[in-house]
Structure formats: structure tokens, C-alpha cells
Amino acid sequence: MGSLEGLWNEFSTWLPHVQLAHFLVVSAVLFALGIFAIATRRNAIMVLMGVELVLNAANVNFIAFARYNAANFDGQVAAIFVIILAAAEAAIALAIVLNIYHRFQTVNIDEVSSLKE
Amino acid sequence: MTPDTLLALAVAILLLPLVAFTITIFFGKRLPRQGDWVSTGIITIALGLSLAVMIQKLTGFADETLSFRFTWIDFHNVPGIGPLPILLGIAIDNLSAVMLVVVTLISTLVHYFSVGYMKGDVRYSRYFAFLGFFSFSMLLIVLADNLFMLYVGWELVGISSYLLIGHWYEKKSASDAAIKAFIVNRVGDLGFFIGIAILFMTFHTFGLREIFDGINSGNLPFGSEWWLTAAGVLLFCGAVGKSAQFPLHVWLPDAMEGPTPVSALIHAATMVAAGVYLVARLFPLMTADALLVVAYIGAITAFISATIAIAQNDIKKVLAYSTISQLGYMIMGLGVGAYGAGFFHLVTHASFKAGLFLGSGSVIHAMHHALHHANDHHTDPQDIRNMGGLRGKMPITFWTFVMYTLAISGIPLTSGFLSKDEILAGTLAFGGLTGHVLIPITGFLVAGLTAFYMFRLLILTFLGDHKEAGRIDQIHESPKVMTVPLIILAVLSFFAFYSYNPFGAASGWVMQAVERPAAVVPAHMAAPTASVFEEALHHAHGNAMLISLAMAGLGILAAFATYYWKKISADAVAGALAPVHRFLINKWYFDELYGAVVVDGTHAVTRLMRWFDNTIIDGAVNGAGWVTKGTSFVSGKFDTYVVDGLVNFTAYASGFFGLLLRKFQTGKVQTYVIFAVLSVMVFYFVFRLV
Question: Could you tell me the CA-to-CA distances from A17 to A21, A23, B499 in Å, in that order?
């Protein structure tokens, strides 16, 4: 535990040096990865996962701004709402994907284009 | 007879020829003999009535003027003038009573003569209709008591003269002459019209009596003595045109293109005398200055036309210039104040000049017939050089012609002697009173010239040998319907009808009836009064008679010496005086002068107008058209390239962008996401949101 304690100590000395910018960088990376997934994945499941990433990037921002700039819990509340929304969205989206799969025998979104015609 | 009956008769005399005109113009062709008996009968009735009216007037009402008038138009109250009724009516005084008989008498004789002369003419009934129309118009002038009706009659005689001169309108010269007569008269009528307008603007009436009364009470036109003289001269302009006075005399010789009886009636006896009658009518308002103008115009006319008559060879042209000359005498007589003498000459001249024309008509008729028989269509039947020796073949025409010639030359025992002598005495008296000696000198000179050219005409036509011996056998005396009027007119050329004293007409009934009216103009502007003038006239009378007889005798002697005894060669004289002769043959170059000044001037003006029209007006119109065309061309191009181009460009741009943007509409959500992200990034950098 000594090493763990040492690690914590090291962390607790380092932690005050973590600034808002670090969170924003993490959030931006998350957001970019999410967008990348949405834009490039062919699999509908992967796209949904990208969406989750984007949502969580937003959550990180909420929490970060709330932690560093605000005197209340508005940011945390918003993050909770986002998590709930994300859960609901995931449920519906997965149901749609299931239906698509039923209908087209695939979850490749490039091939699911009958609305276009 | 009461005055009312006389006036009713006068109205009947006035309207009878109009009735004859209406009947013959509409039904003439369907009536037996083409209706000549209607016209002739009606004018004869008018003559009878006129004689009755004249005799009744001169015996029963010699000192009064009978008049009848009615309101033609009542303008009621005119602002600035007050009540303005226009009164028209007729008046019979001694002057118009005598004139009535002169007009109807000559007209009747001409009607009878025409029955023979115009026999077989293509427009026989029309000819008689217009004779009736002319008589009506002339009687309207005679009877009018106001300037308005006078002017209407004045224009109506103008139009009937035009119609009758142009009776043979197929002939170019005849229709030209008709137009010339009409237009030249118009020039004089313009002055007449302005004169009437001046008087009307001042006195607000056309009535002659009212105008005279107005002037008498000191109310001058526009309040100026100058305007009074101007009005007199302007009114005289009408007489200058109608009576063919210098400088408007050029139409009368050309008017001889009409049928000869027409020349006798209109262009010798009556219509051309209308000018003289007008001056007599307006005599009271003429100032001394205006009368001097009248006298000089008359003298100049008498002289110019007498000289021209000497050199003419056409029988009717000689008579035409003689007419102008005699009209000049009358005008001159009135101008110098010999009022009765001037009018008396009108009366006597009417009969002997109508006779001369009808006599020449008889000669032309016979010549025409003979030439036609010889199948000769080149010889002019009116040229006196082709005549001669007609005395034996046409005795009645010859002897009557002698009578007329004696009368016009002023030989004692004729009517012409009486009247001409009175005029010459008047001019002599005038010359003595005012110092204008040129007028009597001209008068006596013209008396000699008249005798010369009339006897020249008589000798060349009737005496000597006929030009072509073979033709004389075919010449016959005219029928009775033509010779009887000649005889009547010859008888009327005797002195006894006018005065019992063969050497003085002053006691004759015409001179007694027609007294010089007192002037109404202010005393210091008036000509010498009648009594002063009579006194001078009395002294001048004997001298005037002697001089005029001597001049006439000289003229006759010269004519016989030249053309009968051939002591003097006419050709040699003409050769010696070649420039003068040419000048006279060409009628003093009046036609050429007017042709150069008036006709060519008018042409030049019209050419200028045409140029103006062609260049400026058409240029403006064409320019406007050209500008419109150019503008529309530009606007068309603007439409095609700019407006359409804009529209097309809009469509093209829409299409282009449509094609371009279509690429982005892939239907793939992932692409949209990429675009959305990229867009946000672009917006970020563009707007620097943070």
C-alpha cells in the first residue's frame, strides 16, 4: 500500500496543478474521436458509440466548467441530465438498429439507404 | 301707287330672276326649248316692273328715299356695345330706281340676243340659269340699303361672273380667265371688306343711312379723320376690283373668253358698273383726299387702257379695253365731283357698250359661221385683220354699230356725247378749282384716243374689202332675235331719251333725278361743295365741249386717214415707234409684271414652303422617327443582352449552384455530420466566436 500511498501522494501533489485546460483538452480529444467514429464507421453500432463519446465529451466540459468557474452545481446537474438522455437515446437507437437489422440483415448504414430513393 | 306698293314691286323685281334661276337650273333640261322662255319671260316681266317703279319713283316720290327694313339678327345686349340688332333691307332712291331699269333692260336684251347666239350650245339651260342668277345678284347690289347685303350681292356677281366666263370651261384659256377674274376681284374685295369692317366697328351697323348720320354728327371711325379717308379708299378698292380699274384691270380683257352676250351684260354694261355705283352710293362719306385718289385712279385707268386698245387686233379685246377706259371716265367723273355726270355716263355707256358687244357678237357669229362653212378652223373669227367689207352683208349690224361708235366717241346728237361732255366739263372745273390739271388733260386725250380706236375698229371690220374674197359670200346677217336688241340699243343711244337739249344733259331727266348728295364728312375735309362746283362747271362747259369735239374729230380723222384712205401707213407708224408699239401690244406688260411679281412671287414662296416642309418639317418627323428607331434598337439590344442576360444568368447561376450544391446532398448522414463540423470550424475561424 506504501506504493499506492506514494502514488496518491504524488498524485495529490500533482493534482492541484491540473488546470481547466487539461479537462478541455481531454474533452476535445473525446469529442474529436466521437466525431471521427460517427463520420467514418460503417457499422451503426459504432456510430452510436461515437455519439456516446461526443455526449460524454460534453459531460466532461460541463463538469470541468462547473468545478473551476461556478459556485453552484448547475454543471453537475446538466451532466446527470445528459447521462439520462444518453441512456434513453441508446435504448431507442439500439431498438432502431435492431429493427434495421431485422429488415435489411445488416447494420451497415451505407446500405440502408432506401429513403433516399 | 303707295310707297309700300313700290317697295313690294322692288322686292318682286329682286326675286323674279332668282325664281328664273331656280326653275332653269333644276328643270331647264326637261322643259321645252331647254327653258329659255322661262328666263327670258321672267326678266321681261322684271323689266316692265322696273320701268313702272322708276317712273312712279321719279314722278311721285322724287325727293324721298323709300326703304323697307327688317331685323335680321338681334344680338340683344352685347357687352361693351349695348343693343346690337343687325338690320337688313332695301331702299329705293332715284339712283337705284334708274339703275334698276338699266340692269333689267340690258339683261332682257342680252337674254333675247342669247337665244340666237347660244343656239345649240351644250349647256344652253345652264347658261340661262346663270344669267338669271347674275341679274338677281346685281339687283341685290342695286337695292341694298346696307353694306352687308351690298357685299353679299357683290360676291354673288363675282361668282356668277366666274361661272359665265368659264361657261366653255373645256377651253383652257376660258377656265384660266375665270379663275383670274375671280382672284383679281378678291384682291379688291379684301379692301372693301376691311372698309366695311372699319365702319362696322365704329358704328355697329351696316345701314348706309345710319353710317352717314353717324359721320355727319361728328362721330368719325376710331375718332380719327385719317381713318375716315382710309375707310373711303378701302371701300373704293372694291370698286377698283369690280370695275377693272388700274391696277386691277387685268382680269377684264381675259374675261372676254366668255360668251359674247355675257361680255355685253356683265363685262360691259352692268357688273363692271357696280363699282361706279358703289362709289356713287358711298359718295357722301368720301373725303376730298379719298375722292382725289378716286379721280386719279380713274384718269390713269382711262389713259392706260385707251392706249392699249389702239394696238389690239381682237375685236372683243378692243372693246374690253374701251370698256375699262370708259369705266375710268365714270370713276374719274365721280372723283372730281361730277356725280350726276359719272352716273349718267354709266347709264348711257350701258346701252351703247352692250350694243357694241352684241354687235361684235353678231359679227363673230357670222364670221364663225362662214369659217365653219369653209372648213377653216385656223383663222381667228375675232381678229379684225381677217374681217373688212362686212357692211354690205350685215347692214343692220353695221348701222347699229356706227351708232354705238358715234356715241362712244362723243359725237353730238348721241347719248355718249351728253354724258362724256358732262364728265369732261367736270374735270375741267375740278382742274380749275384744285389745280390738278393732269386730270382734265388726260380726259381730253382719252377722248381723242377713244374716237381713234373705235373708228379703227369700225373701218377694219365693216369697210374696205373683205380679207378673203371667197368668204364674204358666206357671211349673213344674224337672225331677228339678235338684230332687234341691237336696234333697240342703237335707238337708246340717241340723245333724245336722256335730254331734250342735244348739247347739255344738265336739264335731262337723269341728271335732274340723280343729284349729288351732300357730303357728311367734316367741312374742312370735304370736296368743294356742289354749288361751288356747279359754278365752275358752268364756266367750263363751253370750253370742254369744244375741246372734246376737236379731240374726237382729230381721232376720227386720223383713223380714216390711216385705215380707210391709207394716207398714213399704220405699219410704218408702228415700225417707227416700234418700242411704243410693242409696249402697247403687250398691254403695258401688266400681265408680265404681275406674272413676275405676284405669280412668281407666290411660286417662290410656295417653293420656299415646300423646301421648308421637305427639309425642316419632314426632317423633324424623319428625325423623330430615326431617333425612335435608334432608341428602340438600343433598348432592344439592352433587352436582349442585359435584361435577358440577367434573367438567363440568374437561371444559369441557379443551375450552376444547383449542380454544385447537389454534390453535397449525398443522403448520407455521415457526410452531413462532416459538413456540419467543418462548417462550425469555418464559422469559428471566420467569426472568431471565442
Answer: 11, 12, 167
**Cβ(A62)–Cβ(A76) below 8 Å:** yes
Q: Which residues of B293-327 are buried (b: 16+ CB within 10 A; e: fewer)?
A: bbbbbbbbbbbbbbbbbbbbebbbbbbbbbbbbbb
Rg of the Cα atoms in chain A: 19
Chain A nearest-CA distance from B675, in A, is 10
> What contacts B28, CB < 8 A, 6 or more positions away?
B34, B35, B38, B124, B125, B126, B128, B129
Reduced to 3 states (helix: H, G, I; strand: E, B; else coil), residue B651 is helix
The answer, yes or no, to whether ipTM is higher than 0.95 is no
CB of B690 within 8 Å of any CB in chain A?
Answer: no
pTM: 0.75
| Residue of B662, B671, B677, B681 to mutate, interface with A, max A Cβ within 10 Å | B677
Amino acid residing at A61 = N
User: Could you read off the pLDDT of A74-116 as tens digits, one per residue?
Assistant: 888 999 999 999 999 999 999 999 998 998 888 887 787 776 6
Is B670's CB within 8 Å of A115's CB? Answer: no
Task: Identify residue B11 by its one-letter amino acid code.
Answer: V
B283 with B527: CB under 8 angstroms? no
Q: What per-residue confidence (pLDDT) applies to A115?
A: 67
Confidence band (pLDDT; 50, 70, 90) for B690?
low
- Which of A39, A113, A116 is facing B673, going by the closest CB pair? A39
Q: Is B367 in contact with B381 (CB distance < 8 Å)?
A: yes
Q: How far is B666 from chain A (nearest CA, A)?
A: 9
Residue of A24, A31, A33, A35 to mutate, interface with B, max B Cβ within 10 Å: A35
Closest chain A residue by Cα to residue B677: A35
Helical spans, DSSP H, in B564-643: 570-576, 578-585, 590-594, 600-611, 618-637
Q: Is the pLDDT of residue B436 over 70?
A: yes
Closest-CA distance, B627 to chain A, in angstroms, reads: 60
Q: Chain A: residue nearest B665 by CA?
A: A116
Q: How many CB atoms are located within 10 Å of the residue B674 CB?
A: 16
Radius of gyration of chain B measured on its C-alpha atoms: 38
Nearest CB to B673; choose among A38, A113, A115: A38
Q: Which residues of A touch B670 (CB under 8 A)?
A: 38-40, 47, 109
Q: Quick: pLDDT tens for B308-332.
A: 988 888 888 899 999 999 999 899 9
* Digit-coded pLDDT (tens) for B575-594: 788 888 888 778 778 888 88
The answer to whether B267 touches B258, Cβ cutoff 8 Å, is yes
